[in-house]
Write a structure and sequence with these properties.
Blueprint (H helix, E strand, L loop, with lengths): L4 H28 L6 H22 L8 H25 L6 H29 L1
Helix pairs in contact: 1-2, 1-4, 2-3, 3-4
């Protein structure tokens, strides 16, 4: 199979950024999620939620917005937290007894995790320019 150096570099960059995203988001979820979620679930959520949305953000959306970084960021950074909130609610909140405050805290933590990883990514982007 022929290798494309640009594609290989892109996928390597994607992997590195994925690992950084998981680290940032997991740290926020460890602190931010309500106490009704054990540490093991928080760690799993940090990796799993990102794994679900990351391919869309890195592989699907960029070709839809060539030369339109602002619009791409708006769509990607709206999609990721909304999708992750839905996934988190379905997998981790819905099975539990209703608890409005805890559920609101959980979803805010998911949004905060996404904002944190976005902020770190933008800082890296700005430093690399």
């Amino acid at each position: 199979m022929p290798s494309d150096p640009a594609l290989s570099a892109y996928l390597l960059q994607m992997l590195g950024c994925y690992l950084l995203t998981v680290a940032v988001e997991t740290a926020v979820l460890l602190v931010g999620l309500s106490r009704r979620h054990p540490v093991r679930a928080r760690l799993f959520a940090g990796a799993w939620l990102t794994a679900c949305t990351y391919p869309v953000v890195w592989l699907v959306l960029p070709p839809l917005f060539p030369d339109r970084r602002g619009l791409y960021l708006l769509v990607a950074e709206t999609f990721a937290p909304v999708a992750e909130c839905v996934l988190f609610w379905l997998a981790f909140v819905r099975p539990l007894p209703p608890a409005r405050r805890a559920s609101a805290r959980d979803l805010l933590a998911v949004v905060a995790a996404n904002l944190g990883s976005f902020g770190v990514g933008e800082l890296i982007y700005a430093l690399g320019r």
